[in-house]
Amino acid sequence: MGKKNKKKRLGVVYSTNPDFDYDYSQPEEQDEIPANQQRLRVLLDRKQRGGKEVTLITGFQGPADRLKEIGKMLKTKCGVGGSAKDGEILIQGDHRDKVVELLKKEGFSDTKKSGG
Q1: DSSP 3-state of 88
Q2: Is residue 42 exposed (0-12), middle (13-18) or buried (19+ Cβ within 10 Å)?
Q3: What is the pLDDT of residue 98?
Q4: What are phi and psi of 85, to 5 degrees?
Q5: Predicted structure pTM score
Q6: Residue 92: how many CB atoms within 10 A of its CB?
Q7: How far apart are CA 71 and CA 51, in angstroms?
Q8: Which of 12, 59, 73, 108 is the most exposed place for a label (fewest CB within 10 A)?
Q9: What 8-state DSSP symbol labels residue 93?
Q10: What domains, with CATH codes, occur in the chain?
Q11: Measured between alpha carbons, how far is 103 from 101 in angstroms, rounded to an integer?
């Protein structure tokens, strides 16, 4: 077994089962739900961030590429850094009002601001 196969085995180091066969298939991407049917929550989060505030957008359902695209647009419009992964978008700083406004312009009509 070459190194290429080992790197693809995410989460499996060794198995004592002689019948074990690693499944190389990738999980399927979710289909994107139309923007007007998505229920996004925009909140302020300070947990495990050294006291720094981030605007957290949760509830997105769809492919990771679209999530990253929305995250990039929000970061650009707010003029700050952040990240988009695991169905969440992080925007550095408290930009809840601006993010809600931008998401509504993008067609996410059921966007709720909470927390803080």
Answers
A1: strand
A2: buried
A3: 94
A4: -165, 160
A5: 0.71
A6: 16
A7: 22
A8: 12
A9: S
A10: 31-114 (3.30.780.10)
A11: 6
DSSP string, 31-72: PPPPGGG-EEEEEEE-TTTTT--EEEEE---S-HHHHHHHHH
C-alpha 40/C-alpha 45 separation (Å) is: 15
Nearest in space to 98 (alpha carbons), one of 55, 68, 61, 67: 55
Report helix angle 64-78 to 96-105, nearest 10. Answer: 120
CB atoms near residue 113 (< 10 Å) = 17
- The two three-digit tokens of residue 69, written as one number: 């695209």
* pLDDT in the model for residue 5: 52
DSSP state of 75: H
Give the phi and the psi of residue 96 in degrees, each rounded to 5.
Answer: -60, -50
Which position has the token pair 């085995």?
9
> What's the pLDDT at 24?
66
Q: Averaged in consecutive runs of 10 residues, what is the pLDDT profile of the chain (116 residues)?
A: 54 75 66 81 89 92 91 95 92 94 88 72
